[in-house]
Amino acid sequence: MNFFSSIFNIFFPKTCACCEEQLVNNEIEICLKCRFDLPLTNFTNEANNMVEKTFHGRISIEFATALIFYKIKGISQKLIYQLKYKGRQEIGTCLGMWLGTELKNCERFKSVDFIVPVPLHPKKLRKRGFNQLTTFGKSISEILEVPFLDNVLIKKYGSDTQTLKHRIERWKNVNEIFYVTDLDIFKNKHVLLIDDVITTGATLEACALKLSMTKNIKISICTMAYTE
Question: CA-CA distance, 52 to 43, in Å (whole number)?
């Protein structure tokens, strides 16, 4: 098997999602150099970190974290782009395993019962072919040994891109587009809500508000990246 894998890699070499240099043995999606260059947040064990402050006065959450800082024109932006628009879903697996290990070793996240991704509208899902959060969430799920539920929080209809909108415009746009199919599932449970990048937090806020209609629910948030 190793022989045929080696032959395959000669003709179809795997490259780093950040620098596009050829990966060597034991490197997965991101080369060792780029792993060291990624701007890690180190938020997971930090109470009242920048992600948690983003939601102060907006929604009630237990804890929040992000793995890396999202830097415009930096390697973190390229990494997320490769995942979302170039179909390199293994990047989600890589980041999920990385962050999942952090969460498992952190007392703050030990009580999580479910992992729930921010959903895509079915039309967008069909067009893209995948939700960029699936491999990310499933990897965290495997490490934390808790269920990954991607069919309970639903997006009712599509919306225009949020990237260039003011925070208030974004909030108005997402406030009524999500719903929960079965609130009883999350009763008395701790839900980890996941997304790719936090910009204003409007989408996560809207999702959390829908989930908070459940009796005695606890909600925490984690994302691949955080925009300063």
Answer: 9
Residue 115 CB partners (closer than 8 Å, separation 6+): 137, 140, 141, 144, 146, 147, 148, 149, 191, 192, 194
Residues 194, 116 contacting (CB under 8 angstroms): yes
H or E element at residue 126:
helix 122-128
Lowest pLDDT segment from 18-27, 96-105, 219-228:
18-27
Task: Decide if 93 contacts 188 (C-beta within 8 A).
Answer: no
Lowest-pLDDT choice from 77-86, 160-169, 173-182 = 160-169
Has residue 9 got a pLDDT over 80?
no
Distance of CA 160 to the CA centre of its chain: 20
Structure tokens at 88: 């390199």
CB 123 within 8 A of CB 117: no
* pLDDT on residue 116: 98
Structural domains of the chain, with CATH: 1-37 (no CATH), 38-227 (3.40.50)
| 83 within 8 A of 137, measured Cβ to Cβ | no
Rounded to two decimals, the pTM is: 0.86
Q: Over 50: is that where the pLDDT of 211 sits? A: yes
